Amino acid sequence: MYGEEHRCADTNMLVPAYIRPMRFLPTLTALTAARLLLAAGSAVACRKLMGLAGLRQLECPMHKNLAGERLLTEIDFVRLNKLRDAQLPPELVDTLDSLDLVPSREIPADVVTMYSQVVLEDLDAHQHQKLTLCYPADAEPHLGFISVLSPVGASLLGQRVGAIARWRTPNGDACAAEIVSLLFQPEASGDYTT
Questions:
Q1: What is the pTM of this model?
Q2: Which residue among 61, 118, 119, 136 is the one 20 to 30 A from 26 at the CA level?
Q3: Where does the chain show beta strands of DSSP type E?
Q4: If we measure between CA atoms, which residue out of 143, 145, 153 comes closest to residue 76?
Q5: How many CA atoms does the CB half-sphere of 95 hold within 13 Å?
Q6: What residues have CB less than 8 Å from 145, skipping those under 6 apart?
Q7: Which pLDDT tens digits describe the chain residue by residue (194 residues)?
């Protein structure tokens, strides 16, 4: 029914070969998890079902990161979710719900994480600007420290060098800038706790 199968080391049950659940809740069988994930049909639904089912990690070619998908470290995700009580802007809530989570040590060096310093090029004016993505308490826009809660900050989070970040100003104007370079990323320098 599911094509090639392999035996799950955790439960000793057969599951489709392209799904490799790494950890299950004791009450969830690998086959049940596989059927749920197959029925989901999308990466976002798959992640939500994984969380509900207690799956810690999934390796599946159907849901591998594609160029253009956004990534977030697990520690940044936990810290940002603590800010949910601070009334996160809708665009950041949507971003958090759609990002793919990876351990800090596995985040590619070209991905914008918290406290990354980036160079942006405005697509209209072709001017460069250096910004550091930070938490609200550290924001100092006049010095280039942009809060992740701002439209610009939310649009940068999880993007790769070369991507186009898009946001709206408070008065509704559409803005877009290319991420030209990443001058600093804490994880790339060996800092996995900032």
A1: 0.65
A2: 61
A3: 5-7, 14-16, 20-21, 58-59, 71-73, 100-102, 117-122, 128-134, 145-147, 164-168, 174-184
A4: 153
A5: 28
A6: 131, 132, 134, 138, 139
A7: 345 555 555 445 554 544 444 333 333 444 445 444 444 443 444 454 455 544 443 433 333 334 448 899 999 999 998 887 667 888 788 888 888 899 999 999 999 999 999 999 999 999 999 999 999 999 999 999 999 999 999 999 999 999 999 999 889 899 999 999 999 999 999 988 87
